[in-house]
Amino acid sequence: MPELPEVETVRRTLAPAVGAKVSALWSSGLPLHMKRPLDVDALRRASVGASIEGVRRLGKYLLIDFSRRSDSVLVHLGMTGRLRLVRASEPRGAHTHVVWTLSGGRELRFSDPRRFGQVGVASRGAEREHPALRRLGVDPLAGELTGALLHLHALARRTQLKTLLLDQSIIAGIGNIYASEALWRAEISPTLRSYRLSRERADRLARAVVAVLRRALTKGGTSLRDFVDADGLEGNNAGYLSVYAREGEPCPRCKAAIRRKVIQGRATFYCPRCQRV
DNA sequence: AGACAAACCTGTCTGC
DNA sequence: TGCAGACAGGTTTGTC
């Protein structure tokens, strides 16, 4: 579900939790990401008794910082994960796996039916040494993504361009929806071999990636089924998708029928006429 | 190097 | 109505 715009939307809607003090932590005890059990003790040490100082985002990961604690809480939403700020009186839905009890009668809850998400801790100030964050590439919303950089990485690889876009060690935050959308916007075929990407098209693609992510963010993210922000609100970007999940519909640019093709095991949508190899 | 499949899980939708 | 199968926004791991 959540790619960079969705994760950033969650981060922003968690702002009202800043300053809240954590009094307790509960866990379902079920393992999350890759069947690894939650380190509940580490989570408690990092958060219980402290106040939330801020929430940061690295790629699709969220980092929650606490006062006077050397570890931050690390959250990845996986496919169906939700991080919600609710009143403690609100009923706890199924698939709730971690709950932080906050001051002011509120709770921060992590739920995830498929349990592909992650909740853990990372050393504050040395987050980048965490295995999950060590190899993250540039952040497209931080102005770090340039055509030159994208071109450099593309030249070094022979893979299909869409696969390159999904590689978090190059650009952190693009997922399956926005990979298709950015390639459509840049008018480049998802199957183009990376090393054949011209510098000019790399510039265009870099701009397209940023534009597509920025617009999605202004719409509060894309909700196709599961995504909601910390307040439980769905995003409004789904209606602005040009090709994703629109197989057979006319291309908004040239009216040719949009096609679906599996690349790297993931559904990929593109216009066969105006996206050229 | 890279393509591919499977694995981790549950829910939903489709077609018979 | 029931059931099987396909599919889902992510990441890791293993095989060829």
3D architecture notes:
The two termini are 28 Å apart. The longest helix is centred in the C-terminal third of the chain and has 20 residues, at 199-218. The chain is built from seven helices and ten strands. The protein is 25% helix and 22% strand. It has helices at 4-13, 40-47, 131-134, 147-155, 161-166, 176-186, 199-218; strands at residues 22-27, 52-58, 61-66, 71-76, 82-87, 96-102, 106-111, 118-123, 259-263, 266-270. With 277 residues, it is α+β, with helices and mostly antiparallel strands. It binds a DNA duplex (16 and 16 nucleotides) through residues 1-3, 6, 31-35, 60, 76-81, 95, 112-118, 132, 157-160, 163, 166, 168, 175-178, 222-227, 244, 264-267.
What is the H/E order? Answer: HEHEEEEEEEHHHHHEE
CATH architecture of the largest domain: Orthogonal Bundle
How far apart lie the N and C ends?
28 Å
Q: What is the spatial order of strands in the main beta sheet? A: 1-6-7-5
- As for the CATH topology of the largest domain, it is Helicase, Ruva Protein, domain 3
**Uncertain parts:** none
Task: Tell me the domain tally.
Answer: 2
Outline of the structure:
With 277 residues, this protein is α+β, with helices and mostly antiparallel strands. It is built from seven helices and ten strands.
